[in-house]
């Protein structure tokens, strides 16, 4: 599961980095995305995001 999440986060950061000039952001805490994620996956994303902010 952690490997899967790492792949997703790496892809997210790569897309955001490659498209900084046009302001591409992928918000995982977006209200429209929450129902599409499983509860477990969303909890792990929140933990990873909160660790990166510290």
How would you explain this protein's 3D organization?
The structure is a single chain. The chain is mainly α and about 55 residues long. It has helices spanning about 1-20, 40-54. The longest helix has 17 residues, at about 1-20. The chain is globular and about 35 Å long. The two termini are about 25 Å apart. The mean pLDDT is about 80.
Amino-to-carboxy terminus distance: 23 Å
Radius of gyration: 12 Å
Q: Sheet with the most strands?
A: none
The number of distinct helices, counting runs of at least 4 residues, comes to 2
Given the helix and strand composition, which structural class is it?
Answer: mainly alpha
Order of helices and strands: HH
Strand content: under 5%
How would the global form be characterised? globular
Number of strands: 0
Work out the helicity level.
55-70%
The average pLDDT value, as a whole number, equals: 78
> Spans of 5+ residues with little confidence (pLDDT < 50)?
none
């Amino acid at each position: 599961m952690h490997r899967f999440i790492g792949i997703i986060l790496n892809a997210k950061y790569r897309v955001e980095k490659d498209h900084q000039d046009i302001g591409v952001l992928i918000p995982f805490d977006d209200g429209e995305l929450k129902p599409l994620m499983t509860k477990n996956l969303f909890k792990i994303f929140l933990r990873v995001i909160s660790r990166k902010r510290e």
